[in-house]
Amino acid sequence: MPLSFAFAGSSRLAAYGWDETLETEFTPHRAAGLVPARVAAVDRGLCDVVAEDGPARAATAPAASGDPAGEQAPCTGDWVALRPGGPGGRPAVAALLPRRTAIVRSSAARDSRGQVLAANVDTVAIAVSLAARPDLGRVERLLALAWESGARPVVVLTKSDQVPDSAGAEADTAAAAPGVDVVACSAATGDGVDVVRAVLAGTVALIGPSGAGKSTLGNALLGADTLATGAVRDADGKGRHTTVRRELLPLPGGGVLIDTPGLRGVGLFEASEGLERTFADVEELAAACRFGDCAHDSEPGCAVLAAVEDGTLPPRRLASYRKLLRENAWAASRTDARLRAERNDQWKAVSKWQRRMYKERGRDR
């Protein structure tokens, strides 16, 4: 398939988010004979991309030895530079453009490396089912992930048709998500979908646990039954992973949607800024504590504990704040230890090479 591109406001890639800034960044790649594309989905060794001439199947390079978690490999939402004449005539990904944003969680193996879920996302839509009592701790965890990515989070309370009144759940969720739009809808009936559509912009990533109604909501936004959906168990409200890979699809009113598989576990990966934004109310209270290093445990003059005592701050929220701070500190220490170990290994390799060179020079004399 021939691939070519010339920037224009009406181009196919403009509908996927291509703009003049990206065009400028792409200048050296274009000079090298490469063409731009956006990654729509990734398989092992291959990825689906959208180029100006249409969709294509492109080859990707094997994971680098220093990148076993694939942090530097193409992922859904990436902008890439394609080499048209790859192996067997198939285009190949030659380079990744710098990511503006990236949703990163700790790897499933918890090995101190990150896993990129989606790149260049503008809005993170966190799906939370109203069919069961919202897990506010999980909401806060996902909000930290979203804020840390650099994108704007939105909480979408789904399946509103399955509860007689969602006002209480909306209020509780809003209290756990300061500064974040919280909207309720029923994708099954269409009620509230227009409101959801109004608060989403640009590249939208749908995240949340299985059974939260992400794919059903995605279909409502797409205006077609494009995404597979499945039933939810009555016993625990959980569903099967009907979405098995992350894929990017154009939205009818503009922008694109990235549907993601259900997240069973969401480990934080160096999310300090995300936690500050998620717990902005706690951080604001902490600024009034008597001691700058107050741990909000038993210190005198602690404004956070005072807010808990007078009912301004729910005890659950403080407990969640402490838990996520501990987890984030642990993840950061693991990453630091890994980086130190990698640097030591590099120095050892250099020293070994130097000793071998000196030894060989001594033999030549």
From TrEMBL:
Molecular function, one GO term: metal ion binding
GO biological process, one term: ribosomal small subunit biogenesis
CDD domains (UniProt xref): YjeQ_EngC
Enzyme class: hydrolase
PROSITE patterns, alphabetized: ENGC_GTPASE (PS50936), G_CP (PS51721)
Top-rank lineage group of the source organism: Bacteria
Matching InterPro entries: G_CP_dom, P-loop_NTPase, Ribosome_biogen_GTPase_RsgA, RsgA_GTPase_dom
Coiled coil: none
Pfam families tied to this protein: RsgA_GTPase
Cofactor annotation comment: Binds 1 zinc ion per subunit.
Binding site for Zn(2+): C289, C294, H296, C302
EC number(s) reported in the record: 3.6.1.-
Cofactors (names): Zn(2+)
Residue span(s) of domain EngC GTPase: 119-264
Residue ranges of every copy of the CP-type G domain listed in the record: 111-266
Keywords per UniProt: Cytoplasm, GTP-binding, Hydrolase, Metal-binding, Nucleotide-binding, Ribosome biogenesis, RNA-binding, rRNA-binding, Zinc
Record function comment: One of several proteins that assist in the late maturation steps of the functional core of the 30S ribosomal subunit. Helps release RbfA from mature subunits. May play a role in the assembly of ribosomal proteins into the subunit. Circularly permuted GTPase that catalyzes slow GTP hydrolysis, GTPase activity is stimulated by the 30S ribosomal subunit.
Subunit structure: Monomer. Associates with 30S ribosomal subunit, binds 16S rRNA.
Family listed: Belongs to the TRAFAC class YlqF/YawG GTPase family. RsgA subfamily.
Entry protein name: Small ribosomal subunit biogenesis GTPase RsgA
Gene encoding the protein: rsgA
